[in-house]
Design goal:
It is a single chain. 73% of the residues lie in helices and 0% in strands. It is mainly α. The protein has one domain. Helix 2 packs antiparallel against helix 3, helix 6 packs antiparallel against helix 8 and helix 6 crosses helix 9. The termini are far apart. This is DUF998 domain-containing protein. It comes from Paracoccus haeundaensis. Keywords: Membrane, Transmembrane, Transmembrane helix.
């Protein structure tokens, strides 16, 4: 009995650890866009064209610090033990997202002339910009995989799981559509044409809120949302 109690305690602690990491990842996802929007409202400075553009602003420390914190939490996330031969796993996708978001923070987007970061100096401005864009794409792709593949695994054993899966899928497709539209804006030059309304910033915010929502739901910190989805489906 003592051994069974010890095993159960370890399992409970593991579950609580998973929940804490998921909640932290979700909270950081909500925090960054809201902090940048608050800065734009409270200080006499127009909204920047993208979230990444805030690297070249007084909010640089908030931008970099939040992304590195996300990288740390994602790297620490083990998830569930995969089956033999399985390669799309919680741990693999979390590590991919962690490395990608760290690169987004450490290799900034194109900006005004000034001192370069260490990685920028090594890679050069052109390659640095490419690394930043690719890393951002991989980050959101990994989080879309969490929403559409990993989070929805398991038996649908009740209305709460069904509602959660619906939220995850909405979040996953929101990420994909938002990032796809950003790619379209860049490919067509509409990001410059429509720069006045900041489409890239708003689409990045939508994708970020989507992944934050999915992790918050997975961490059981948005239960009112889950209950609302259950009620709406009746």
């Amino acid at each position: 009995m003592d051994d069974d109690g010890g095993v159960q305690k370890v399992r409970n602690e593991l579950v609580l650890s998973f929940l804490a990491v998921r909640r932290a990842i979700g909270a950081l996802g909500f925090f960054l866009p809201l902090a940048l929007l608050a800065y734009a409202v409270l200080w006499p400075e127009p909204l920047r064209t993208s979230i990444s553009a805030y690297y070249y602003s007084p909010m640089r420390e908030v931008f970099v610090g939040t992304l590195i914190a996300q990288a740390v939490f994602l790297w620490s996330y083990e998830g569930f033990r995969p089956d033999a031969g399985e390669w799309i796993t919680d741990k693999a996708m979390a590590r991919l997202a962690a490395v990608s978001i760290a690169l987004v923070a450490l290799v900034p987007t194109d900006g005004p002339d000034g001192p370069c970061t260490a990685l920028e100096c090594i890679a050069g401005p052109g390659l640095s910009a490419l690394i930043h864009v690719v890393a951002a794409g991989l980050f959101f792709a990994a989080l879309a995989v969490f929403c559409l593949v990993l989070f929805v695994r398991g038996t649908v054993d009740g209305p709460e799981k069904a509602a959660s899966n619906r939220i995850y899928r909405i979040c996953g497709w929101t990420i994909i559509v938002s990032i796809g539209l950003i790619g379209l804006l860049f490919a067509t030059g509409l990001d410059d044409t429509l720069a006045r309304v900041r489409p890239v910033f708003w689409l990045e915010t939508a994708a970020t809120f989507a992944f934050a929502t999915s992790w918050a739901v997975k961490g059981d910190s948005l239960r009112p949302l889950t209950r609302a989805v259950i009620a709406a489906s009746r």
